[in-house]
Automatic annotation (TrEMBL):
Residues 103-112 have a biased composition (Basic and acidic residues). This is DUF4177 domain-containing protein. It comes from the Bacteria. It comes from Maritimibacter fusiformis. Residues 80-143 are annotated as: Disordered.
Length: 143
């Protein structure tokens, strides 16, 4: 039996729902809603994976970010299997190699790049006068 697979990003936070007070309850509800939606479409839950993803950091840098994904599978449709078998079947009667499963991906939201501890990524707290500074700022800076 052949399967097709679908990989979706795991939820990162639970949706706010009346009656669910703790973050764990909200997260569990969000996860169960996602799994029930996929099951209604015929997808069977297989596993959760954490996979590395190399992403751009700044202009030339790269950083590795780990993405949490959920893997679902369902039996490949009979029509798709018969079409694949006809395309792969060799003419000399030799046994055809197994076709690889079809995998679908959904876009994953990017997570922010990790920051160095102690590094300041904020704008300076004091105003620096310059050519575009207002008259009040120049007066304060001159004093």
């Amino acid at each position: 039996m052949q399967f097709e697979y679908k990989v979706v990003p795991a939820p990162t936070r639970g949706k706010k729902i009346r009656g669910l007070k703790s973050p764990a309850d909200r997260f569990a509800n969000t996860l169960s809603e996602l799994m029930n939606e996929m099951a209604a479409e015929g997808w069977e839950y297989q596993r959760a994976d954490t996979l590395p993803s190399e992403e751009r950091a700044g202009l030339t840098g790269k950083s590795t970010v780990f993405q949490n994904v959920l893997v679902f599978r369902r039996a490949a449709a009979e029509a798709a299997r018969s079409t694949d078998a006809a395309e792969v079947a060799p003419e000399d009667g030799a046994k055809a190699p197994l076709a690889s499963p079809r995998v679908e991906f959904e876009r994953v939201e990017r997570t922010p790049a990790p920051r160095l501890p102690g590094a300041s990524h904020e704008a300076p707290k004091h105003k620096v006068p310059g050519p575009a500074a207002s008259r009040d700022n120049r007066d304060v800076a001159a004093e």
